[in-house]
Amino acid sequence: MPQQNRSRQNEKVRIAILDAAFSLVREVGYDKLTIEGIAKRAGAGKQTLYRWWSSKALILLEALVEHVKDELVFADTGNIRDDLLAQMLRVEKLLTSKDTGCLFIGLLVEAQFNQDVANAMNVQIYQPTYRAATERLAIAQRHGELQPGLDPVMMVELLYAPIYYRLIVPCTKLTAADIPKFLDMILAGIRL
């Protein structure tokens, strides 16, 4: 748990709190969710929540990560296009899902105004996924699937920029059908 030292924390209580937050935000929405509501749903004391997290956003972030962590992995089947497509489609599904998409957007907005949330998102979501993506792209470069001189971090940014753009610009809609098109256009410029 990145935010605070919770070495004595009861794991069952932690999971109950995260599950309560995740289910309650789907029912009432990000704006109406309260620490009090999460504590009540989890059967935990409000003080426990404040001791372990400094805001509802940080509880929700940890709940989101707990629920999606297995979806953010990068496979290595030996075919970079197939591996990227599979992972990008999982990301698209998470970002457009009623369960996780609205929650992620709420956290993304919160991170623009709350440095603690921005830092936590970097540590819990972006750094691990960037690391996994750049490692997978570097392997593809070593195997001759991608141009060797390109910066893997910039390649990640190119690959995911259209997804985030479609997510946050309200006049466009993110769809699974567009992911292979985006990927193929980008790969046309970075493949050997």
Outline of this structure?
The chain has helices spanning 11-28, 35-42, 46-52, 56-68, 80-96, 101-113, 115-142, 152-168, 178-190.
Report on the architecture of this protein.
By secondary structure, the chain is mainly alpha-helical. It folds into 2 domains: 11-65, Arc Repressor Mutant, subunit A (Orthogonal Bundle); 70-190, Tetracycline Repressor, domain 2. Helices cover 70% and strands 0% of the residues. The protein is built from 9 helices and no strands. Helix 4 packs across helix 6, helix 7 (115-142) packs across helix 8 and helix 8 runs antiparallel to helix 9. It is elongated, with a radius of gyration of 18 Å. The mean pLDDT is 91.
Task: Give the helices and strands, then pairings.
Blueprint: H1 11-28, H2 35-42, H3 46-52, H4 56-68, H5 80-96, H6 101-113, H7 115-142, H8 152-168, H9 178-190
Helix pairs in contact: 1-2, 1-4, 2-3, 4-6, 4-7, 5-6, 5-9, 6-7, 7-8, 8-9
